[in-house]
C-alpha cells in the first residue's frame, strides 16, 4: 500500500487518502486523511496487526470491541490483531492520523513490548512532548531518510509511546467510576457530556467562551467543568489549549507560510504574543522555530 485514495486495499475501511512514509524491517508507518461518504457507523472490521494510531487533526467516533469513544488530535490508540473496530464521522470528513503497524516479532524483542502482546490494547491521550516528536517524525520521513535511520527513529518513537502507556496504567476516567460507584447510568451520562464538549471544541470552536460551550452541550458551566475534569483528568481550559496548539502545529507544517498574527486569530488567541506564549509553554519552542522544524518542502 504505497500511496492512494480509497479503502485500505488489504481490507474494507473508511475511504481515505493514505500515503506510506516508510517500511523498515518490521514497522510500517503511513499517514491517513479520511474521505467520508457515509457519516454513520461503518461495519466492524477485524484488525490484522498490532497498531499505534495517533491523531493529528479533526475528530471522529470509534467503537473498539463494543466500547464507544471519541477520538481527536490528542488521541492515541494501541490495538491488537483480532480487535474489532468501526467508526463514524458525525462532524464530517478531514480527520487525519498516523498509523504504525508493528510486527509481533518486533514487539517480542522489546522488553517493553510484552504488555502490548499479553493484554488488551490501550487508549488515551498523548502529552505535548510525544505529540511534537510525532509531528517531527512525520516531517523527517517526508523529507526523506534511509532505512537505517527510519528504523532507529521508529524504535525510539515507540519508546515514547510505550512509556506513556506504562505511566498511565489506570485509564482516564477511573476516578469517575470510583466516585459514582454503582451508578453506571450516571457514569455513561457524564462520559457523553464530556465527549460532547470535546466535539464542540474539536470542531474548531476556539472562539467560544465557556458559557457558550456549556449552552451547546446543555449544561451549566459549573457542572460541565466539574464533570469534564472528572472524566478526562483535565480542565476544559487545558484541553482546549492542547487541542488548539495541535491545530496550530498542523497549520505551521503547511507550506503557505501564513503570518503568525493570522494563525493566532484563526485559532482564538488574543494576539500573536498570546499564541507564542501558549505554544512555547506547551512544546518548549516558539511558533517560528516550530515552522522550520515541521515544514518539509
UniProtKB/TrEMBL annotation:
<dbReference type="InterPro" id="IPR050204">
    <property type="entry name" value="AraC_XylS_family_regulators"/>
</dbReference>
<dbReference type="Pfam" id="PF12833">
    <property type="entry name" value="HTH_18"/>
</dbReference>
<keyword id="KW-0238">DNA-binding</keyword>
<dbReference type="GO" id="GO:0043565">
    <property type="term" value="F:sequence-specific DNA binding"/>
</dbReference>
<dbReference type="GO" id="GO:0003700">
    <property type="term" value="F:DNA-binding transcription factor activity"/>
</dbReference>
<dbReference type="InterPro" id="IPR018062">
    <property type="entry name" value="HTH_AraC-typ_CS"/>
</dbReference>
<dbReference type="InterPro" id="IPR018060">
    <property type="entry name" value="HTH_AraC"/>
</dbReference>
<keyword id="KW-0804">Transcription</keyword>
<feature type="domain" description="HTH araC/xylS-type">
    <location>
        <begin position="191"/>
        <end position="293"/>
    </location>
</feature>
<protein>
    <submittedName>
        <fullName>AraC-type DNA-binding protein</fullName>
    </submittedName>
</protein>
<keyword id="KW-0805">Transcription regulation</keyword>
<dbReference type="InterPro" id="IPR009057">
    <property type="entry name" value="Homeodomain-like_sf"/>
</dbReference>
Amino acid at each position: 500500500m504505497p500511496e492512494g485514495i480509497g479503502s485500505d486495499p488489504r481490507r474494507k475501511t473508511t475511504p481515505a487518502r493514505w500515503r506510506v512514509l516508510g517500511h523498515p524491517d518490521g514497522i510500517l508507518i503511513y499517514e491517513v486523511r479520511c474521505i467520508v461518504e457515509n457519516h454513520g457507523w461503518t461495519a466492524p472490521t477485524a484488525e490484522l496487526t498490532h497498531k499505534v494510531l495517533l491523531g493529528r487533526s479533526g475528530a471522529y467516533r470509534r467503537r473498539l470491541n463494543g466500547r464507544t469513544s471519541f477520538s481527536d488530535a490528542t488521541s492515541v490508540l494501541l490495538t491488537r490483531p483480532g480487535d474489532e473496530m468501526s467508526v463514524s464521522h458525525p462532524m464530517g470528513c478531514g480527520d487525519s492520523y498516523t498509523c504504525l503497524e508493528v510486527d509481533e516479532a518486533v514487539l517480542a524483542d522489546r522488553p517493553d513490548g510484552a504488555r502490548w502482546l499479553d493484554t488488551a490494547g490501550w487508549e488515551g491521550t498523548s502529552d505535548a512532548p510525544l505529540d511534537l516528536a510525532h509531528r517531527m517524525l512525520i516531517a523527517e520521513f517526508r523529507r526523506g531518510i534511509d532505512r537505517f535511520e527510519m528504523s532507529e527513529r521508529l524504535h525510539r518513537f515507540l519508546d515514547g509511546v510505550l512509556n506513556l502507556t506504562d505511566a498511565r496504567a489506570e485509564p482516564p476516567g477511573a476516578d469517575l467510576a470510583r466516585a459514582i460507584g454503582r451508578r453506571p447510568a450516571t457514569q455513561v451520562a457524564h462520559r457523553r457530556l464530556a465527549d460532547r464538549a470535546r466535539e464542540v471544541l474539536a470542531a474548531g470552536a476556539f472562539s467560544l467562551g465557556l458559557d457558550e460551550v456549556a449552552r451547546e452541550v446543555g449544561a451549566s458551566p459549573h457542572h460541565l467543568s466539574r464533570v469534564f475534569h472528572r472524566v478526562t483528568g483535565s480542565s476544559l481550559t487545558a484541553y482546549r489549549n492542547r487541542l488548539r496548539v495541535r491545530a496550530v502545529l498542523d497549520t505551521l507544517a503547511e507550506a503557505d507560510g501564513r503570518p503568525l498574527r493570522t494563525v493566532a486569530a484563526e485559532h482564538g488567541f488574543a494576539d500573536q504574543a498570546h499564541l507564542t506564549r501558549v505554544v512555547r509553554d506547551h512544546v518548549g519552542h516558539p511558533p517560528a522555530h516550530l515552522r522550520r522544524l515541521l515544514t518539509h518542502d
